[in-house]
Here is the input.
Amino acid sequence: MVVSDGPSESRRALATGTSERSVGVAGTFALMELSEVMRTTASVRAFTDEPVTPEALYRVLDDARFAGSGGNKQGWHVTIVRDPALRRQLADLSASVWERYLAEAAAGYRSFNPIDPAPADVPVPDGLSEHPMLAGVEDVPELLVVTVDLRVLAVLDRDLDRFSIIGGASIYPFVQNILLAARNQGLSGVLTTFLTAKEPEAAPLLGLPDGHAIVAMIGLGHPEHQPTKLKRNPVESFTTIDRIDGEPFTI
Ligand SMILES: Cc1cc2nc3c(=O)[nH]c(=O)nc-3n(C[C@H](O)[C@H](O)[C@H](O)COP(=O)(O)O)c2cc1C
Here is the structure.
């Protein structure tokens, strides 16, 4: 992962656990260790005023594009949304879904769950909290909408009699790579999926062609606060030998 210009840089990188990389027009920048990046890529929904430079955003996408996808079809598209009026429209559509998400949770449901869905008439309580990124969407340094061309997906569970999951696997690794690549440069962000629930309304605003789907709306910027201790379950809690109900894998 460490790329450097010469032997002395390599030695410095080994000693400090970081390195610098030089990438053409994008310049030289510091890199973090991969494991550190993976363990500290938190969801950040509030950003400082500091802009994201075009070079930094380019580098994020230039790293993210190495994500795998079924058949290497790379069906992603990224729309960088800079028009404040368009941002507001997308945020308002998203905010209505956030409200529904909170309402389902308040009624004791796992929000938007496909197996045990909340009833359509779930009550919407008063005083629900605003989503911080959507509330201030005009001030988010960069707002990306990731879409995918469904016509290039290979969806191996397409014909099973259950909720389909495989299609997302050709696009969310790319989305995660965006967040990891951002963190690698000291940027942060959050993946939101609210907008997909409003795809019929959002699609014409974005000029989305038929056969394409909205995957995520991602805010990126310099974090107001960067959490570094993420709450995640231990390996033993989700890894077993031979069967799902087998012995936990541990060392
Ligand atoms: C598929 C997916 C969809 C998500 N959708 C949203 C979203 O719509 N809005 C949001 O604020 N966060 C969203 N998140 C972020 C999660 O809330 C976050 O990953 C989780 O709470 C863990 O928080 P942490 O990364 O800060 O530890 C999403 C994450 C994933 C992986």
Summary: The chain is about 30% helix and 15% strand. The chain has two domains: 1-31, 42-237. Residues 1-31 form one domain.
